[in-house]
Amino acid sequence: MTDTATGGLADIIAARLTAALAPAHLEVINDSHHHAGHLGDDGTGESHWTVVVESGAFQGLSRVQRQRLINNALADLLVSRIHALAIRARAPGE
How does pLDDT run across 40-65, given as a tens digit for each residue? Predict the structure, then answer.
C-alpha cells in the first residue's frame, strides 16, 4: 500500500511540480521505507519517491519529454536529496 506523503521533502516536491506543471492531479509517495538499509538510503526516510502527475502540460509529449519536465523541476533535489524517483506522468484523459 502507498500513501500520499506530506511534510518535509514531500511538500517541497509537490510545490515544485505544482509551480512547474499546474497539475490536475498530483501524488507524491514516499517509498523510502521499502529501501531502508539499501544503497542510496541516507537514513532520512526521504530518499526514494514516486510521483503521479496529470497535467495539460504533457499533452502531445512523449514519455521521455514528460519525465524531463519533471526532472527539470526537481533538478537540484535529484542531485542532493532524492536518490530514486519513479514517475507516472499523463495528460488529462489518458
Answer: 556 566 788 999 999 999 999 999 99
DSSP string, 23-91: -SEEEEEE-GGGGTTSTT--SSS-SEEEEEEE-GGGTT--HHHHHHHHHHHTHHHHHHT-SEEEEEEE-
User: Would you call 53 exposed, middle or buried from its count of C-beta atoms within 10 A (0-12, 13-18, 19+)?
Assistant: buried
Question: Which residues are within 8 A (CB) of 54 and not within 5 positions of it... i.e. 6 or more apart?
Answer: 23, 24, 25, 26, 89, 90, 91, 92, 94
Question: Judging by beta carbons within 10 Å of its beta carbon (0-12, 13-18, 19+), is residue 65 exposed, middle or buried?
Answer: exposed
